[in-house]
Amino acid sequence: QVQLVESGGGLVQAGGSLRLSCAASGRTFSSYAMGWFRQAPGKEREIVAAISRSGSNTYYADSVKGRFTISRDNAKNTVILQMNSLKPEDTAVYYCAADRSWDDSVDQSSYNYDYWGQGTQVTVSS
Predict the structure, then answer these.
(1) pLDDT tens digits for 4-29?
(2) If you ran DSSP here, which 8-state letter would residue 11 be given?
(3) Which of 71, 72, 92, 106 has its CA 20 to 30 A from that of 52?
């Protein structure tokens, strides 16, 4: 069982930055690939970024490439999403998710993620 708690959301102006953190419980954090997803009102949940168990492999949605960076610290059981150059279309609830992984790959599909946080709201004003 893994419990995930996100923090760091808020209101920011376009062009600004936010740093989302996800704290995971348990002693097997390094066995999980991690992902950040988001869901805007009236839209389906979509992947933002993902990182493999070791942190060696990452994935970014095209819409955030070059602006967002995902990282993890397995010693501290945390995964970070650094968001720069934010745009109004980044407004959404952001979710952290954990995928029990048997190799060092990343997974883009939300269906493969086993545990989810409660979400944190990110609002970007124009």
Answers:
(1) 999 999 999 999 999 999 999 987 99
(2) E
(3) 92
